[in-house]
């Protein structure tokens, strides 16, 4: 009986309300073939699988410096392969919090896991609204002509 009273009073006093915020992880894509996932205001950025396939075997990665302030679509480094070199642009503005130093000795991580262990840098987002201008995975797949 006491348990039923507790359940009833608890249920009446506690209301579920939806909370919409960017505390969940979202993956977005830029037209310049970078991806970003965001978790609690920190973005992890790398190049897409499509981009690494187009580049071929990656032999060198220039990573940004921790503490650098980066503008939206600002140059943050480069990825070089046996076929070509490609500049790397940030899909958002903010401060570089971390760079994947593993890529200095193991640039092929980008080929092996471009959207995983081959991430390039982490950034504290200046304005999360900039994410709204990026593509979903479905939109990016259409851009590059892949089925999704």
Automatic annotation (TrEMBL):
The modification N6-lipoyllysine is found at residue 83. It is found in: Mitochondrion. The keyword Secreted does not apply. Pfam families: GCV_H. Its cofactor is (R)-lipoate. GO terms for cellular component: glycine cleavage complex; mitochondrion. Binds 1 lipoyl cofactor covalently. It comes from the Eukaryota. CDD domains: GCS_H. PROSITE patterns: BIOTINYL_LIPOYL, LIPOYL. GO terms for biological process: glycine decarboxylation via glycine cleavage system; protein lipoylation. Residues 42-124 form the Lipoyl-binding domain. Belongs to the GcvH family. HAMAP family: GcvH. The glycine cleavage system is composed of four proteins: P, T, L and H. The H protein shuttles the methylamine group of glycine from the P protein to the T protein. This is Glycine cleavage system H protein. It comes from Smittium simulii.
């Amino acid at each position: 009986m006491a348990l039923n009273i507790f359940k009833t009073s608890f249920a009446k006093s506690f209301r579920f309300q939806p909370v919409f915020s960017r505390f969940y992880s979202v993956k977005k894509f830029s037209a310049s073939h970078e991806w970003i996932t965001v978790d609690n205001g920190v973005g992890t950025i790398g190049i897409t699988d499509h981009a690494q396939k187009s580049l071929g075997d990656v032999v060198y990665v220039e990573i940004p410096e921790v503490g650098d302030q980066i503008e939206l679509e600002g140059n943050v480094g480069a990825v070089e392969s046996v076929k070509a070199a490609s500049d790397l642009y940030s899909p958002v503005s903010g401060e570089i919090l971390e760079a994947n130093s593993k890529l200095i000795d193991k640039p092929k991580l980008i080929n092996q896991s471009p959207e995983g262990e081959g991430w390039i840098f982490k950034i504290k987002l200046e304005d999360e609204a900039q994410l709204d201008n990026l593509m979903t995975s479905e939109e990016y797949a259409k851009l590059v002509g892949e089925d999704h």
